[in-house]
Design goal:
It is elongated and about 60 Å long. It has six helices and six strands; from the N terminus they run H-E-E-E-E-E-E-H-H-H-H-H. The longest helix is centred in the last third of the chain and has 34 residues, at about 160-190. By secondary structure, it is an alpha+beta fold. The N and C termini lie far apart (about 75 Å). Helix content is about 50%, strand content about 15%.
């Protein structure tokens, strides 16, 4: 009897710590509990016990802790580039893989360099010198590395996985280049003042 009670207690305890997962269309995964689907909104509780809401249009899938999946994404044939559910699943897997494994350190350092150049130009161009790192980071982050050797995934040859991976990689490169540009500009300006 004690063994049965212990097993039941442990089983029930595991459900208390189980987390549901909301996967957004941009590949971001949100671990949550207490999901409610109401009209075009999904309400969920965060770890800090705050209730938040996200539009269903931004959500691909909701995975519940007990294994059930609720696919929110619907194919939109009015869009020229529509994906079916399996293609979108692979696309989002590519985005998730890029978020976890691609760092974009080269973009950060090149942005930092452009920021330093802009900071040095402050003495000559004044406040217009901020355009130098903005232009440089935009140009630097727009270059695409088509070499996919940094992917070690069974789906690495799948067209939709690569589309998602490259889109997320491009966004990461752009954000890191902007961050580097701001940091480089500020370091150089603070050095002069």
């Amino acid at each position: 009897m004690k063994t049965l009670f212990l097993i039941t207690f442990i089983f029930n305890l595991s459900f208390l710590f189980a987390q549901d997962t909301i996967t957004l269309m941009n590949g971001k995964e949100i671990s949550t509990s207490g999901i409610r689907l109401i009209d075009n909104q999904i309400f969920y509780c965060t770890d800090k016990a705050k209730e938040k809401c996200v539009s269903k249009d931004k959500v691909f899938i909701v995975k519940f802790c007990f294994g059930e999946e609720n696919i929110i994404y619907k194919t939109d044939s009015s869009n020229d580039e529509f994906f079916n559910v399996e293609q979108m699943r692979k696309y989002i897997q590519g985005e998730i893989y890029a978020r976890k494994h691609f760092k974009g350190n080269l973009s950060l350092s090149s942005g930092f360099g452009w920021g330093i150049i802009g900071g040095v130009g402050y003495g000559y161009l004044g406040s217009y010198s901020i355009l130098i790192p903005a232009f440089g980071t935009a140009v630097t982050s727009s270059f695409s590395n088509k070499n996919q050797q940094d992917i070690i995934n069974p789906l690495q040859n799948d067209e939709f996985f690569l589309l998602g991976y490259n889109e997320a990689k491009k966004n990461i490169k752009f954000k890191r280049a902007i961050l580097g540009g701001i940091l480089g500009y500020l370091v150089c300006i603070l050095y002069y003042f």
